[in-house]
Amino acid sequence: MHLTAAPCCPLCHNADCVIYSADKRRQYWRCPECQLVFADPSALLDGAAEISIYQQHQNDPTDLRYRAFLNKLAAPLQQRLAKTGLQGLDFGCGPGPTLSLMLAEAGQQMAIYDPYFVNDPQVLTQHYDFICATEVIEHFYIPSREWQLWLQLLKPGGWLGLMTKLTDQVTDFANWHYKNDPTHVSFFSSETFAYLAQRDGFSLEIIGPDVILLQKAPGNSVGSIAGEL
Length: 229
Prior knowledge:
Layout: E1 18-22, E2 27-30, E3 37-39, H1 47-54, H2 64-81, E4 87-91, H3 99-105, E5 109-113, E6 128-134, H4 143-153, E7 154-163, E8 186-187, H5 190-200, E9 202-207, E10 211-216
Parallel strand pairs: 4-5, 4-6, 6-7
Antiparallel strand pairs: 1-2, 2-3, 3-8, 7-10, 9-10
Pfam families: Methyltransf_23
InterPro entries: SAM-dependent_MTases_sf (IPR029063)
GO molecular function, one term: methyltransferase activity
């Protein structure tokens, strides 16, 4: 495989990224600052190719196994929210929103957003007590963009609940099945989330291999909302 010039990190914009791995389809870079591993930009799919893959997903809100999977995030998040009637956003809900239904059933007030399936810019003009994104963040081409948006949307003291597989839980990245999905392009680690938490004033909890909970500091004021994605 022909090696390309090192790109800047799409999360923290560090310019000294190093080659981390390569397979027959693409190269992977690692940022020495935030420890993000990311696919080379030349391998990113266009929007039509992305959506054709997403449309194949079979996410059924009535599927009890799928609900059990999402409950790995929903249950600990709900415990930390401690009360009902809060304003929440299910970001990247996909074609079959389910986590939002589960949290609404638990008494929360839910909004949903997805750039392909529920692209409602009005949702991105509100502020939220919590934001959740399950199996979403690994799809971001420029994760700094969505991260900054979340910072703006999340109220002081609010919770950010994420699910994604972590690279530090993997001993053999080259044979890791998770990276073989062509829409998976940004791979986070515990160190990446620790970097973001320290930089942007969050507390951090990592539960098991793939659940991340971050709480915005109570004094971390809501920023202005710059606009839609």
